[in-house]
């Protein structure tokens, strides 16, 4: 198919070309400026973080060597040549892993309950009064921004060493994170059922129960399952500060250079996280139909 | 049926059997699931040593600590804290940048539309998953063994753990890109590299930039805690002050973290908006 392409007269073309060049040049300039600014930020950051490429160069061999060593048994063979020797503490570790899972489960559920109680107060369309909304939002923000492990550090002092501190830390952080997501779900809910229920003379509580809750339940459980996945990872390090779970054992192994133990525990953590990811993915697929995973 | 007339329940029952006579399994499912969830919860509470007296004592202690935290007061160590905060921000920025630089080429291998065969895709994806399965704090512990205590270990820890997350997100962004541009470049006689450079990159670069900014933001939070295991930044100060029970300094440090995170949120929100417009990022 031949199509005649008309070419503009050269004066018009020259004007258009000039305009195009100018537009491109301006964009190039802006990109260059942004790149320079970013490079400057990087240099400042590199100085601030005491980055020393020579250190990295010297020690990078150590990094590879470290992985070489953690996959070597005391007798010099590779770990997989003698799996029983490698996982000699399997019973103890699997129990601690179970504790880790339990910590994240109880923590997630407790955090979910708190978030569930508070999110209706924080959502723009359901909050009974502006000052309530403001207070709840700010406290959720606080709980979300303070990292879980910082809560754990403080709770270990208040509640003593052990999994209780870990559970409460995870619950505190999750309630903040989930509260915000829940409130967003509620804000996206359709308000017509609420009007319908209110028209019958129902109280605020009944409005929430019969008009909003049925709409948002699916979103709530989906986010809670996602949070559980995240919390399993989080719970695996709670032991670093003495708040229960497998982390305690890992930090001891790393600090005391029990090399093959480090790899064994890491492998167990990674496998557990895998399994939990797959299981919750399957569960969400069952509950809410196949949705693309984010 | 006229309005106002009472419908006959039997007719309705016949017409909508799925509403009136749901199968037993569907009716029982919800209570059973709820019951099991609750049972595991209670078992967990018992197994993990929750007892009312312990909770009461702990809450009392927590209230006492809360009172001791007020008012927040840095004492004489404000300059040290500011420096530590700067260190934390540096760790976040550098770690994320490093991760993005390494993750980008590797994620090309994991994108289905760049390399159609699964030879690279499968192992690379599993590598990303494995790295993501290990928490940043664990990576920090490992790097401390390699390069010694200090912020540099933190940078590397953030870089490694983000490499997994960013690699996954980048490859997904690439798979979501439109094929038409790539085909156009191929039709004009471009080779595979041209296709990536002129067909794929212009589409995914804004998305990737948005994600990197978002990660810098969230890494500011992660970077505050890796100091707890000795990898530099404000977490080191925080953990130390908690251990010596200097609660006023603790609350001041937490306040500093909150303000810094809010500031970074605000800046990166603005930048993201400038780069990708109002489009939501995944």
Instruction: Look at the structure and give the mean pLDDT of chain B.
Output: 83
> How many distinct folded domains of chain A?
2
- Helix/sheet category of chain B: mainly alpha
Q: What is the third-level CATH name, the topology of the largest domain in chain B?
A: MetI-like fold
The number of helical segments of chain B is 12
Would you summarize the structure shown here?
With 294 residues, chain A is an all-alpha fold.
Topology:
The complex is a heterodimer of chains A (294) and B (282).
Chain A lengths: L9 H39 L4 H18 L12 H4 L3 H33 L7 H16 L2 H12 L3 H25 L4 H8 L4 H35 L8 H9 L3 H30 L6
Chain B lengths: L8 H7 L1 H4 L3 H24 L4 H18 L8 H33 L7 H16 L2 H12 L3 H25 L3 H9 L4 H35 L7 H10 L3 H30 L6
Structure description:
The complex is a heterodimer of chains A (294) and B (282). Chain A folds into two domains: 11-51; 87-288, MetI-like fold. Chain A has helices at 10-48, 53-70, 83-86, 90-122, 130-145, 148-159, 163-187, 192-199, 204-238, 247-255, 259-288. Chain A contains eleven helices and no strands. Helices cover 78% and strands 0% of the residues of chain A. With 282 residues, chain B is an all-alpha fold. In chain B, helix 7 packs across helix 8 (151-175). In chain B, 79% of the residues lie in helices and 0% in strands. Chain B is built from twelve helices and no strands. Chain B is flat, with a radius of gyration of 27 Å. The interface between A and B is large, with 58 and 65 residues.
């Amino acid at each position: 198919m031949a199509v005649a392409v008309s070419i503009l007269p050269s004066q018009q073309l020259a004007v258009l070309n000039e305009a195009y060049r100018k537009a491109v040049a301006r964009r190039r300039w802006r990109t260059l400026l942004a790149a320079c600014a970013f490079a400057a930020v990087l240099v400042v950051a590199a100085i601030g973080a005491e980055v020393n490429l020579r250190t990295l160069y010297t020690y990078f061999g150590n990094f590879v060597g470290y992985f070489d060593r953690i996959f070597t048994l005391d007798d010099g063979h590779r770990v997989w040549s003698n799996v029983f020797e490698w996982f000699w503490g399997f019973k103890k570790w699997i129990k601690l892993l179970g504790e880790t899972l339990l910590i994240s489960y109880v923590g997630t559920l407790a955090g979910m309950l708190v978030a569930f109680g508070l999110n209706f107060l924080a959502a723009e369309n359901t909050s009974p009064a502006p000052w309530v909304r403001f207070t709840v939002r700010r406290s959720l923000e606080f709980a979300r921004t303070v990292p879980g492990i910082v809560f754990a550090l403080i709770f270990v002092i208040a509640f003593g060493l052990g999994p209780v501190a870990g559970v409460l830390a995870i619950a505190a952080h999750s309630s903040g994170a989930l509260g915000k997501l829940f409130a967003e779900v509620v804000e996206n809910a359709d308000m017509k059922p609420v009007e319908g229920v209110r028209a019958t003379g129902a109280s605020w509580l009944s409005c929430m129960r019969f008009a909003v809750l049925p709409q948002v339940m699916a979103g709530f459980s989906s986010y809670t399952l996602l949070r559980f996945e995240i919390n399993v990872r989080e719970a695996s390090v709670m032991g670093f500060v003495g708040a229960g779970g497998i982390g305690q054992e890992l930090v001891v192994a790393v600090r005391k250079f029990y090399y093959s133990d480090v790899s064994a525990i890491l492998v167990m953590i990674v496998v557990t996280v895998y399994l939990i990811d797959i299981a919750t993915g399957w569960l969400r697929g069952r509950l809410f139909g196949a949705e693309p995973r984010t | 049926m006229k309005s106002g007339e009472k419908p006959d329940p039997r007719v309705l029952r016949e017409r909508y059997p799925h509403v009136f006579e749901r199968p037993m399994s569907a009716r029982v499912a919800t209570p059973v699931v709820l019951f099991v969830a609750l049972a595991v919860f209670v078992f967990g509470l018992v197994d993990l040593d929750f007892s009312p007296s312990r909770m009461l004592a702990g809450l009392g202690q927590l209230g006492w600590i809360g009172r001791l935290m007020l008012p927040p007061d840095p004492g004489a160590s404000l300059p040290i804290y500011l420096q530590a905060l700067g260190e934390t921000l540096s760790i976040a920025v550098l770690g994320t940048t490093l991760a993005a630089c390494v993750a980008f080429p590797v994620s090309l291998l994991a994108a289905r539309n760049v390399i159609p065969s699964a030879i690279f895709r499968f192992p690379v994806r599993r590598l990303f998953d494995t790295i993501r399965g290990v928490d940043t704090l664990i990576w920090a512990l490992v790097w401390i063994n390699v390069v010694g205590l200090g912020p540099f270990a933190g940078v590397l820890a953030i870089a490694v753990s983000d490499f997994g997350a960013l690699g996954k997100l980048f490859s997904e962004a690439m798979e979501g890109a439109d094929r038409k541009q790539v085909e156009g470049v191929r039709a004009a006689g471009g080779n595979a590299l041209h296709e990536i450079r002129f067909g794929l990159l212009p589409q995914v670069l804004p998305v990737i930039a948005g994600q990197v900014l978002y990660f810098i933001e969230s890494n500011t939070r992660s970077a505050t805690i890796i100091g707890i295991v000795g990898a530099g930044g404000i977490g080191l100060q925080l953990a130390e002050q908690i251990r010596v029970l200097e609660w006023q300094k603790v609350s001041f440090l937490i306040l500093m973290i909150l303000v810094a995170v809010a500031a970074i949120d605000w800046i990166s929100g603005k930048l993201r908006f400038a780069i990708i417009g109002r489009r939501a990022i995944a």
